[in-house]
Design brief:
By secondary structure, the protein is an alpha+beta fold. Helix content is 42%, strand content 12%. The chain has eleven helices and eight strands. The strands form three sheets. A four-stranded mixed sheet has the order 6-5-7-8. Strand 7 and strand 8 form a beta hairpin. The longest helix is centred in the first third of the chain and has 27 residues. The chain is globular, with a radius of gyration of 35 Å. About 33% of the residues have low confidence.
Length: 249
């Protein structure tokens, strides 16, 4: 459609200023473009004598009122045509549009990026969304100081829920190891050497380990945090929808 508008505008401009109004007048039929034998385009003859005489007449042959009307019609049509072209040119085709990363992260829990070093496409887990409680932040800091590690995979919904249980402020203190070969900053070999066969898997600084997602109160107890600091499990209850426990294999 845009190409058709451009063709009509170009053909009309070639006729000269005195024919603009007649060509775009709402009172006259629009001239049609036809192909010559040599491949060039020309305006076809109009179907009525009135239309032909309107095109062939000069401005001096028409009345002032008629000329004013056709010029206003031309300007109005020209404005509409030129205003429409940028819209047609800039409108994206829905079939070629990719979903934004925010939508992919929301639906899948991860999104693709290109690794600058290898050039391969890898997957980045979505960030935690909910705000952390103060005690969750203190627990995460304790886990960091005792060198606790959580092993997981970008595609694992239980890993994503574990992240949400901590919240966005606390999660930044957690040492996380990506075990999937397709995950961002994957440490697949480290996971194999540590015998990780399910996600999430915790290894705490006191030598204890636990597989599957854990409520924060359980992490506080297993890691030894609760022996030194108070932790109220009721403050964390109901914050994140349950997946029924367990983990991913």
């Amino acid at each position: 459609m845009m190409q058709r508008l451009l063709t009509i505008l170009a053909a009309t401009a070639a006729l000269g200023p005195s024919y603009y109004c007649a060509a775009f007048s709402t009172n006259n039929a629009r001239p049609q473009l036809k192909k010559n034998h040599d491949g060039s385009s020309k305006l076809s003859k109009l179907s009525t004598n009135h239309e032909a005489s309107s095109l062939l007449s000069s401005p001096s042959d028409t009345t002032t009122e008629s000329t004013t009307t056709t010029r206003m019609d031309f300007l109005r049509n020209m404005f509409f045509a030129t205003a429409t072209l940028p819209i047609l040119a800039s409108s994206p085709r829905p079939s070629n549009a990719a979903p934004p990363f925010a939508i992919m992260a929301e639906e899948l829990g991860y999104f693709p990026v290109k690794d600058e070093k290898s050039g391969e496409t890898v997957m980045v887990p979505a960030k935690a969304k909910r705000s952390s409680t103060d005690q969750a932040v203190e627990l995460a800091k304790y886990l960091q100081s005792t060198k606790a590690v959580m092993y997981g995979a970008f595609w694992c919904p239980h890993c994503q829920r574990q992240k949400e249980l901590f919240g966005k402020e606390a999660w930044k203190y957690i040492t996380y190891v990506e075990c999937s070969p397709k995950g961002y900053k994957s440490q697949y070999a480290t996971c194999l050497s540590n015998g990780i066969d399910g996600y999430p898997s915790w290894k705490f600084g006191n030598g204890k380990s636990q597989g599957g997602e854990m409520e924060l109160i359980d992490i506080a107890t297993t890691s030894g945090f609760k022996k030194k600091f108070a932790f109220d499990g009721s403050l964390e209850e109901g914050q994140v929808p349950s997946l029924g426990g367990g983990g991913c294999k």
